[in-house]
C-alpha cells in the first residue's frame, strides 16, 4: 500500500516507522501529565476539566498547528531539526546563531532529563503490585542497558519499535475509551472555556501550565526526525497518535471524576487498568519509555554531529555502527548522557520530583524554534503581517509556559537550566574560538610560490621527503594557501616531493552532498582538490582522496608512478604522506582577558576532541602532525638596551 508524489511517499511501513522513532517522548506523557496537574490538590471538576482542556488545546495549537502543519514545511533537503532550520536561514542574519545555540543546548539537556522521568514513571507502577519494591536500582539498570546497546546501532531493535508503539497507542486509546463510557460528560472539557476558567479563576491556576506543558515536550522530535520518516508519514501517523492520547487523557479525567473530593493516591494512568491487566500494562509502559529514551539519545547524536559541522561543538569521535542511513553513534556524548541520567535518578529518585526539572529546557528550545521559524516564514512568504501573527501567538503561548515553568526553578528546575547552561557555554566557547582563529589565520597567494615549489620538486640536492605530499588547507579561495603551510614546506624542513596536493573540505548546508573539484595549479607538480560534503556525510578524506586519484590516473590527468629512476622502470607507485598542522596557543600572545579565557578553555576542551587526522579519516601510518604556534596578539616586549662588555 503506497501513495507517492515526487519522492514523498505515504506507506504502511513509513507510518509504522514514524510511530516507532518519533512519538516515544510525547507518547509516554500520559504516564505523568495528569498526575502532575492534580498534584496535592483535592480532585475537583474545575481542576480535572480545566486540566484536560489545557492539554487538548496545547496539543492542538502547539503540536498540531505549529509543528505538524507549519514547521515540517521547513525541510532542508528532507532533513529537519533546529540546526537544519538554522542552516536554511543562517546567511540572512548573523544573530540567528544565538537562538540556534540556545535551542540546541536545551534539546541536549532534554536528552538527559527525559529518559529518567519516562522510565521511572513506568517502573513506579510496580508499586501497585509490590509496594516495597526499590525502583531506583531497576531504573538505573534499564538506563545503563540502554546506553550500552548504543554502540551496536539500533538497526535491528528499530524494526521492532513501530509494532510495539502501535500496541502502546492502541492500549492508550482503548483504556481511555472504556473509562470514558463511565463518565462521558468529560467530553465537555474540550470546550476552551474550561481551560480559561482554570487559568483565570482557579487558585494558582496559571502556574499549572508548567504541568500542562509536559504533554507536548516531544513535539520537537516530530521536526528533528523529519529525515527519517518524511512529512506525509509523520502527518498521517500524528492523526492516530493524537486521537489515542486524547482518549487516554479523557479516560484519566473520567476516572478522576469518580474520585472527586478526595486527594490523589495513585497515578491515574494506572487507575484506568483493571487489576488483571496491570502487570502487562506496566511492561508495555516500560518498553515504551525505553523507546522514548532511545529516540532522545539518537536525536542527541544527530544534534551533536550537526553542531560539529557548524563549528558549535568539539570534533569528537563519530561512529557509524551500521550501513543504515542515519545510523550514528557518538561515544563521548553517549556516556555524557548516561552520567547525566544517572545523576538525575540518584538526585531526584522519584518521577514526581523529576517533573520539576522537566519542561523548562524544552520550553527554551521551542522558543528558539519559533524565532527561527518566523524568520524562515518571512523569507518564504514576505508577509510581515502573517509572520507577526505567528510570532505573537507562539511567543505568547511559549512565554506563558516558560514563566509557569520558572516556578519549578527552586524545586529542581535549576538542574535543567544548569545542564543547558553548561552545554551552551561549550558552544559559545567553541564558536568564538573558531572565529578568533579564523580572523588571525594568514593566507598568501599560492601563485607566488608555484615556481619555488616546482624548483624544490626537481632539486636533487635535497633528500626527497615523500613522492606525494598532501596538506589539508582551510583556504576557501583556491588561489590562496595558509602561510604556515608554506613555512612548513620551505623552512621548517624543506619537504621535497614529486607532487604537492592541497585538499580543502567545505561542509555544505545540504545534508548529503558529495562533490569534488580538481584544479591543476602547476602541471604535474601542484594539484588542489576541493571536496563539498553535506553536514551528515562522514568525512573519510583518505578514502575519498584515493578514489579521486584513481579517477585522475584513469583519465590520464596525473602520473603517480615514482620518479626515482630505478622504481620508475618497475612502474611502482610512489608513497603518499599527509601533513596535518595542529595549532597550540603560543606564549607570545598578549590577549585581552575575555579572549584569553575563551582560547584557554578552547584548548582545554580540545584535549577531549578527536585529532585533525582522525577527524578527516586519514591513515595514521602516513600522517605527520606538526605543531604550529597560534599567535593572535603578539606580546609587546620592553625596549632592550645594549651595553658594552
Automatic annotation (TrEMBL):
Official protein name in the record: Probable potassium transport system protein Kup
Pfam family, one: K_trans
Keywords assigned by UniProt, alphabetized: Cell membrane, Ion transport, Membrane, Potassium, Potassium transport, Symport, Transmembrane, Transmembrane helix, Transport
InterPro entries, per the entry: K+_transporter (IPR003855), K_trans_C (IPR053952), K_trans_N (IPR053951), Kup (IPR023051)
Single GO term (MF): symporter activity
Boundaries of every K+ potassium transporter integral membrane domain copy: 15-443
Functional note: Transport of potassium into the cell. Likely operates as a K(+):H(+) symporter.
Membrane topology note: Multi-pass membrane protein
Record field: transmembrane: 7-26, 46-72, 93-113, 133-152, 164-184, 204-224, 236-256, 276-308, 328-348, 360-378, 385-406, 412-431
GO CC terms of this entry: plasma membrane
Domain spans labelled K+ potassium transporter C-terminal: 467-623
Subcellular location: Cell membrane; Membrane
UniProt family annotation: Belongs to the HAK/KUP transporter (TC 2.A.72) family.
Organism of origin: Pontibacter cellulosilyticus
Catalytic activity: K(+)(in) + H(+)(in) = K(+)(out) + H(+)(out)
Entries under PANTHER family matching the protein: K+ POTASSIUM TRANSPORTER (PTHR30540:SF83), OSMOTIC STRESS POTASSIUM TRANSPORTER (PTHR30540)
Amino acid at each position: 500500500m503506497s501513495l507517492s508524489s515526487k519522492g514523498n511517499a505515504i506507506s504502511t511501513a513509513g507510518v509504522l516507522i514514524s510511530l516507532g522513532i518519533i512519538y516515544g517522548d510525547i507518547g509516554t506523557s500520559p504516564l505523568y501529565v495528569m498526575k502532575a496537574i492534580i498534584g496535592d490538590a483535592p480532585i475537583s471538576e474545575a481542576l480535572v476539566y480545566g486540566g484536560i482542556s489545557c492539554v487538548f488545546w496545547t496539543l492542538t495549537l502547539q503540536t498540531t498547528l505549529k509543528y505538524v502543519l507549519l514547521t515540517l514545511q521547513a525541510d532542508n533537503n528532507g532533513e529537519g531539526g533546529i540546526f537544519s532550520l538554522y542552516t536554511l536561514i543562517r546567511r540572512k542574519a548573523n544573530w540567528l546563531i544565538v537562538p540556534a545555540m540556545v535551542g540546541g543546548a536545551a534539546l541536549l539537556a532534554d536528552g538527559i532529563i527525559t529518559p529518567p522521568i519516562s522510565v521511572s514513571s513506568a517502573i513506579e507502577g510496580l508499586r501497585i503490585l509490590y509496594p516495597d519494591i526499590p525502583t531506583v536500582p531497576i531504573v538505573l539498570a534499564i538506563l545503563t542497558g540502554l546506553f550500552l546497546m548504543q554502540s551496536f546501532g539500533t538497526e535491528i531493535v528499530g524494526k521492532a519499535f513501530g509494532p510495539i508503539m502501535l500496541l502502546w497507542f492502541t492500549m492508550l486509546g482503548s483504556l481511555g475509551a472504556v473509562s470514558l463510557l463511565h463518565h462521558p460528560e468529560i467530553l465537555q472539557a474540550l470546550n476552551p472555556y474550561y481551560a480559561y476558567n482554570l487559568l483565570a479563576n482557579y487558585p494558582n491556576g496559571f502556574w499549572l501550565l508548567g504541568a500542562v506543558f509536559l504533554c507536548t515536550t516531544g513535539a520537537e522530535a516530530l521536526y528533528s526526525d523529519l529525515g527519517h520518516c518524511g512529512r506525509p508519514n509523520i502527518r498521517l501517523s500524528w492523526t492516530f497518535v493524537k486521537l489515542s492520547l486524547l482518549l487516554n487523557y479523557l479516560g484519566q479525567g473520567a476516572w478522576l471524576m469518580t474520585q472527586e473530593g478526595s486527594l490523589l493516591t495513585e497515578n491515574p494512568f494506572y487507575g484506568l487498568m483493571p487489576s488483571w491487566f496491570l502487570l502487562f500494562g506496566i511492561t508495555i509502559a516500560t518498553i515504551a519509555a525505553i523507546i522514548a529514551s532511545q529516540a532522545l539519545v539518537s536525536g542527541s547524536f544527530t544534534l551533536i554531529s550537526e553542531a560539529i559541522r557548524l563549528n558549535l561543538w568539539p570534533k569528537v569521535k563519530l561512529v557509524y555502527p551500521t550501513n543504515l542511513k542515519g545510523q550514528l553513534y557518538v561515544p563521548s556524548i553517549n556516556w555524557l548522557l548516561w552520567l547525566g541520567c544517572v545523576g538525575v535518578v540518584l538526585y531526584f529518585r522519584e518521577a514526581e520530583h523529576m517533573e520539576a526539572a522537566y519542561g523548562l529546557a524544552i520550553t527554551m528550545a521551542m522558543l528558539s524554534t519559533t524565532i527561527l521559524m518566523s524568520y524562515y516564514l518571512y523569507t518564504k512568504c514576505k508577509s510581515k503581517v502573517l509572520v507577526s501573527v505567528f510570532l505573537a501567538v507562539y511567543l505568547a503561548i511559549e512565554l506563558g509556559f516558560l514563566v509557569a515553568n520558572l516556578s519549578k526553578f527552586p524545586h529542581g528546575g535549576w538542574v535543567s537550566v544548569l545542564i543547558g547552561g553548561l552545554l551552551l557555554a561549550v558552544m559559545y566557547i567553541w564558536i568564538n574560538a573558531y572565529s578568533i582563529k579564523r580572523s588571525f589565520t594568514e593566507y598568501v597567494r599560492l601563485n607566488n610560490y608555484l615556481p619555488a615549489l616546482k624548483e624544490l620538486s626537481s632539486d636533487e640536492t635535497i633528500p626527497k621527503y615523500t613522492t606525494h605530499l598532501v596538506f589539508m588547507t582551510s583556504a576557501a579561495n583556491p588561489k590562496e594557501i595558509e602561510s604556515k603551510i608554506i613555512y612548513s614546506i620551505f623552512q621548517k624542513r624543506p619537504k621535497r616531493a614529486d607532487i604537492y596536493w592541497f585538499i580543502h573540505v567545505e561542509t555544505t548546508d545540504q545534508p548529503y552532498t558529495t562533490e569534488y573539484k580538481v584544479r591543476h595549479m602547476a602541471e604535474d607538480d601542484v594539484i588542489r582538490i576541493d571536496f563539498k560534503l553535506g553536514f551528515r556525510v562522514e568525512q573519510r578524506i583518505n578514502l575519498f582522496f584515493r578514489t579521486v586519484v584513481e579517477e585522475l590516473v584513469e583519465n590520464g590527468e596525473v602520473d603517480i608512478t615514482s620518479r626515482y629512476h630505478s622504481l620508475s622502470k618497475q612502474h611502482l607507485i610512489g608513497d603518499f604522506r599527509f601533513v596535518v598542522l595542529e595549532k597550540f596557543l603560543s606564549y607570545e600572545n598578549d590577549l585581552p582577558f575575555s579572549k584569553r579565557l575563551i582560547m584557554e578553555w578552547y584548548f582545554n576542551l580540545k584535549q577531549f576532541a578527536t585529532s585533525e587526522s582522525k577527524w578527516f579519516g586519514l591513515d595514521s601510518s602516513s600522517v605527520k602532525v606538526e605543531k604550529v604556534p597560534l599567535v593572535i596578539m603578539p606580546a609587546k616586549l620592553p625596549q632592550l638596551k645594549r651595553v658594552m662588555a
